[in-house]
Design goal:
The complex is a heterodimer of chains A (245) and B (410). Chain A is of the alpha/beta class. Chain A contains 8 helices and 10 strands. Chain B is α+β, with helices and mostly antiparallel strands and 410 residues long. Classes of the chains: A alpha/beta (245), B alpha+beta (410).
Chain lengths: 245, 410
């Protein structure tokens, strides 16, 4: 069997708040294969955000093992983690996190700057990615000149630009209206169909129905791992929405 | 990220809060300008003192005749002419590293054609020029026949040339000093002002014997060969203090003073006096620069303050940059370059302002200032160092942020 993209064993994260130990993650073991579309669900405090930070290499576990693309991550030093994030993980956030007063194209280029890619190639690849999310004509726009949905598309282009093996989205539709949310989910589904592994953290079942697999967290543990053979198709819902019955 | 890219990012970040950046720079601008002005003023004062030392002649000793007490009234230095020309000859003969010239001094009205001028008459020997490091602009000094035969020849200073001759060539002209005709055989070069501001070029040199018998003296003085002053120059590279003691010992021996008896002359070490003044002006210049650098340090604290605010404001940006792959040194470099850009731009503006202010001081206050490339380079380097020093702590704070917490920061 091929090596899964994500493999975690006994992953634990314990925070110290004063004298109290807060167990955010109490031993999680699971695998996510290449090309999967996974929704991570659970109420706040269930450990889903902590789990996402760990598999996104933003944080280190208190105990347990983590392999991303076959590489052991848990014990890597900070700068090595930065390199892994740069090459293997693309982040999409609820609040977009675009740099203000910086054009869409330059925002998309940012990860390539830290990857040491030349300016000429950065420009080419940024334009390419903006075209892929349908914003080829907005390259020179500043974030404040773009709608919420467009800003999130720019953020997705930025996540894709280093050709990562994994897209990690934290409540990507949390700040968007329902129609724009559908558009964003359609984009994720399209990327997934092209082979990209997508992991979305959400507390909305409405968002989770577009994934093939749903992981439910509660009190720092995975309490359910559900597979759906035929998830909802956001593209079709959009078309259906546009043409009222 | 390379340096050029970091600088671009820094300039963009600074241009977001233009007023804030400008106010932060102001501290450095004022600091650098103050350092440059203070160094220029201090160096100017020092250069003036050095010029005065050069004008006086370096390594100079002055022997003055002693004081006389007449009926309980002490008459002051020079009232008793205890020194003689032979003392000067003895110094020249006995002390190899000393060059001595005796001098008799007095004022007189001088007439040439229908112009006249009151000036100082100096009876001395040709050695005087060597002692004072004074050059001849034209002509010659006294010959030995003129010295021994009380020849009626003179060498005139630049002020006399201007005032008496009105710029005409004085060589070969005959002037009258106290009604005695003298032929001008030489013209002195310009010496300028003395330390206390007297015009050293307002002078006429005559052979000492002539001065004594024809101009200044009386018949009794003529017999004694007495002089009021002996100038002594210590050869370059010798300790003036040691030569001073040698001269003192020689004169005491010649004047037959018992051990324990007071000197009947006074010895002044002008070189030491000058050196003391030079040292004090150097200390003053240093002090001025030090006070000015305090304002630079205060400017640096301003930079640190604003950089800390900036790091806090941009916590989410830092988190995002870390999430997309910025390493510790990328973040450190970004904020360090930002701080250094602030201090360097401030420093360059400060240089312009400081040079302008120094020139204005020279022009309007009439002070002598001395601008040097070293001072400017020093001030800019200091500003740069301030940027690095005070920028490092905020930058390290940014680089050490936890990406998870930085991304969650509101």
């Amino acid at each position: 069997m091929a090596e899964p993209l994500i493999r975690v064993r006994g992953l634990e994260k314990v925070y110290r708040v004063g004298d109290n130990r807060v167990v955010a993650l109490a031993g999680v073991s699971l695998e996510v294969g290449r090309g999967e579309f996974v929704a991570i669900m659970g109420p706040s405090g269930s450990g889903k955000s902590t789990f996402m930070n760990l598999i996104g290499c933003l944080d280190r576990p208190t105990a347990g093992e983590y392999w991303l693309d076959g590489q052991a991550i848990a014990a890597l030093p900070a700068d090595a983690l930065a390199a892994v994030r740069n090459r293997h993980v693309g982040f999409v956030f609820q609040s977009f996190n675009l740099l203000a007063r910086t054009s869409a194209a330059e925002n998309v280029e940012l990860p390539l700057v830290y990857a040491g890619v030349t300016a000429r190639e950065r420009h080419t690849r940024a334009r390419e990615m903006l075209a892929r999310v349908g914003l080829a004509d907005r390259a020179g726009h500043l974030p404040q000149q773009l709608s919420g949905g467009q800003q999130q598309r720019v953020a997705i282009a930025r996540a894709l630009v280093t050709r990562p093996s994994l897209i990690l989205a934290d409540e990507p539709t949390g700040a968007l209206d329902s129609r724009t949310s559908l558009e964003i989910m359609a984009l994720f589904q399209a990327l997934n169909r092209q082979g990209m592994t997508v992991v979305i953290v959400t507390h909305e079942p409405d968002v989770a129905r577009f994934a093939h697999r749903a992981l439910r967290f509660l009190d720092g543990r995975v309490v359910a791992d559900e597979h759906t053979a035929a998830p909802a198709d956001a593209e079709r819902l959009l078309v259906g929405d546009a043409v009222p019955a | 990220m390379n340096f050029a890219a970091l600088t671009r990012v820094a300039l963009r970040a600074l241009s977001v809060n233009k007023l804030r950046s400008a106010l932060t720079m102001l501290g450095i601008i004022i600091g650098v300008a103050a350092v440059i002005v203070m160094i220029a003023v201090g160096a100017g004062a020092q250069a003036r003192v050095e010029a005065q030392i050069r004008a006086l002649g370096s390594n100079l000793l002055m022997v003055l005749s002693g004081a006389r007490t007449q009926g309980g009234v002490r008459l002051g230095v020079g009232s008793n002419l205890t020194l003689s020309e032979d003392d000067a000859i003895a110094i020249n003969r006995e002390i190899a590293e000393a060059l001595a010239a005796p001098a008799l001094r007095g004022g007189a009205q001088v007439v040439w054609g229908n112009s006249n001028w009151a000036t100082q008459i100096y009876g001395t020997t040709p050695e005087y020029l060597g002692v004072r490091e004074w050059t001849l602009e034209s002509g010659r000094v006294f010959e030995s026949a003129e010295m021994s035969g009380a020849g009626k020849v003179c060498v005139v200073g630049q002020t006399v040339v201007r005032e008496l001759f009105g710029g005409a060539d004085p060589l070969g002209q005959v002037i009258r000093i106290k009604r005695v005709p003298f032929t001008v055989i030489g013209v002195l070069g310009t010496k300028g002002q003395s330390m206390i501001g007297t015009d050293q070029d307002d002078i006429i040199l005559v052979p000492i014997a002539t001065a004594r018998s024809r101009v200044l003296g009386t018949a009794s003085l003529a017999k004694q060969r007495a002089v009021s002053t002996i100038w002594v120059k210590v050869a370059e590279g010798y300790d003036t203090k040691r030569v001073e003691e040698q001269v003192r010992a020689l004169l005491r021996q010649r004047h037959r003073l018992q051990p324990g008896a007071e000197d009947d002359f006074s010895l002044r070490n002008l070189a030491e006096l000058m050196a003391a003044q030079e040292a004090s002006s150097r200390v003053l210049a240093l002090l001025l620069a030090a006070v000015a650098s305090v304002s630079l340090v205060v400017g640096g604290i301003g930079i640190m303050n604003i950089m800390l605010v900036s790091v806090t404001e941009r916590t989410r940006e830092i988190g995002l940059r870390m999430a997309v792959g910025a390493r510790t040194r990328d973040i450190l470099g970004q904020f360090l370059v930002e701080a250094v850009t602030l201090s360097l731009i401030g420093g360059l503006i400060g240089v312009l302002l400081g040079v302008g202010a120094a020139l204005a001081v020279a022009r309007f206050a009439g002070w002598q200032v001395l601008l040097s490339g070293e001072a400017v380079a020093l001030a800019v380097a200091f500003a740069l160092a301030i940027g690095v020093f005070f920028g490092f702590y905020p930058a390290r704070r940014a680089a050490r942020l936890n990406p998870v917490e930085a991304l969650r920061f509101e």
